[in-house]
Amino acid sequence: MAAEDADGPDTGAAEARPDGPARREPPVPGLALPESMLVTRDARAAEGAAGSGASDDDDDLRGSALDAWWERVVSTPARRWLWYWGAPIAVTLVAAVLRFWNLGHPQQIIFDETYYVKDAWTLWNLGYEARWPEGADEGFANGENDTYLEEGSYVVHPPLGKWLIGLGMAAFGAEAAFWWRATTALAGTIAVFVVMMVARRLTGSTVAAVLTGLFLAIDGNAIVMSRVALLDGWLMLFALLGFWFVVLDRDWTWQRLSHRVVAARSGSRESAVGPAMWNRPWVIAAGAAFGAACAVKWSGVWFLAAFGLYLVLVDSLARRRLGVPFWLSGGILKQGPITFLLLVPVAFVVYLASWTGWLLTDGGYYRDWADDPANAIGAQLEWIPPAIQSLWHYHESAYGYHVGLASEHPWQSSPLTWLLMIRPVAMYLSFASDACEADDCREVITGLGNPLLWWGALLAVGYLLYRLVRYREWQVAAILVGAGAGYLPWLAYLDRTVFQFYSIAFQPFTFLALGYAAHCILGSRDDPWWKRDRGIGVIAVYTVFVVLVSAFFYPMWTGIPMLETFWRLHLWLPGWS
């Protein structure tokens, strides 16, 4: 049977693919698979011993001995439920340990925390980002958190990410570095769980979901960006949530669209363009998530735009599959405006709400810009409140800053090199450590991913491009849309000062590509035994090496003291030093 088209519904049924079926688990956790779905080498051997007359050809031997063993392990509803939810929760706990362990080290502001930690603190105290005196970083780390000025500070990112960074400090105080970073670590941990839910939705396999989550849980870039109080981890989480909601909308809308089309056809009142679908709560949720992504960093708008177009395309193709005569017109001209109204205004409201503190106070930068008669706008626009006029001017100024940012930085990198991880950012370096008595002891925190995962993910993206062209799988298309939305826009800004760690925004999508490729390599229990055994062996060996490499690099990601000789063993490429 051919692979499902890119516009097909997610029915939950098993589907055969040329190089390995993506068999779905029962939609209700706890249901045991029927025996007819399992044909193993042991079963074939037993049939042969009983004189069943089965062929001795190796291609007649299906599945692996592991399949038979696993079927016994999850043979009861309770065990299957435990696997269905217990495995993702266990991986999430691993992610939490790697992110929260020793999170308060170092007890100092590092790299761009100098902006976001202090801005977060003034947001929670003043409602807007305020300026600090020179040398405030050291004092802040020593508990002097009240030295901020009341003058507004010029910042070029929306406030939501800083509001969220400040949650831990607002609740428990700003004296300990742990609370500067706690909510960011929580965001990174939640992202691991969400990526598993997405992976299982795309593949129907808990094994594939657990592998995908494990890869993200133990990757260095994901760990570092969860342990340093920057904005990009929050951008990643909201973009990933939006993608999850888009995937959930696919099933929701298909079921209701197909029911309405069939009902209209049977009642002789079929529309040539199909029905209008307003009841799409997952699209509204996606709009809120993508709006939150924009409210963290403006680059979140690319996810909103890409998945907005994706929804229109999916809606059109769904109508085609249902035999709607003018399916393209129905998807674009009839459903398209509805989808826009469900998605974009919600995103805008969420984005605007993130500026509430700035709007309701008087001290923010440019807050009183429109009150100056010299800045008055035309009479036809006088009805616009001055605060909104000032906010619009602020956005114009910030946009000009972003597009013109081209100052040299020792750790900047071209987006062309991000997927190869040529120039990761060293965020912290200290030669003083109480844990080392040697003179050449150092502590470093470098946003360096696990090389086996990153380079494997790059190959997986290439493989998914091939699968999209050949098999037109909707799962592959969805993953590639997310990866493209996070990465491709940066290719238009090759002259800007940008950094490798920006890639965290689309990393879940490249790792979903890696998990999907691993799912295809694993194959199905219906595959010939030699193919199934080979697939299991390849993924098992790869996973073991990935875990070992992460353990080797973990000191580079968390500031664990190490000798210079050991540090140099991690410098596999010249740009890593």
Automatic annotation (TrEMBL):
Q: What class of enzyme is it?
A: transferase
EC annotation from Swiss-Prot or TrEMBL: 2.4.1.-
- Boundaries of each Protein O-mannosyl-transferase C-terminal four TM domain copy? 388-576
Q: Name one GO molecular function term.
A: dolichyl-phosphate-mannose-protein mannosyltransferase activity
Q: In which pathway does it act?
A: Protein modification; protein glycosylation
Topological category with respect to the lipid bilayer:
Multi-pass membrane protein
Q: Where is this region: Disordered?
A: 1-33
Top-level lineage group:
Bacteria
Q: Where are the transmembrane segments?
A: 82-101, 186-216, 228-247, 300-318, 338-360, 452-469, 476-493, 499-523, 535-557
Which residue numbers delimit the ArnT-like N-terminal domain?
157-349
Keywords for this entry?
Answer: Cell membrane, Glycosyltransferase, Membrane, Transferase, Transmembrane, Transmembrane helix
- What is the official name of this protein in its record? Polyprenol-phosphate-mannose--protein mannosyltransferase
